[in-house]
Amino acid sequence: MVAKASGNFQAKYYDRKYNVRVEPVNNLPYFVVVFEDTAPDELRTMENYSFTFSMLGLFFGFLVLQLLGIFIVSSKRSFFKKQSFDSTWVGPKRSCQKEYTLAAIMNCIIIVL
Asked: 28, 45, 75, 97: which has the fewest C-beta neighbours closer than 10 Å?
């Protein structure tokens, strides 16, 4: 850094090994430092997938709780005697079975494409 030259080296940061690249910024007293994790790609991929799936699971649980809340608060047998909120639109209807089947088929076609 005193010579203001670029360089490569290995370092340990928070008990993990990294390849480090240091580049000086022209006409400024600063450096750009890039850390590259030396952990295997499979480990990083597994960590990313596990985090993503856990967040999706939490989000799905949150949506289920919201839907459950809508059904509890707006059900016809509710303890709120004078309610004007109609919740029949929330759940599926038997009369719309053909539309649901067609929508599922079209969604599968879109996913394949």
From this structure: 28
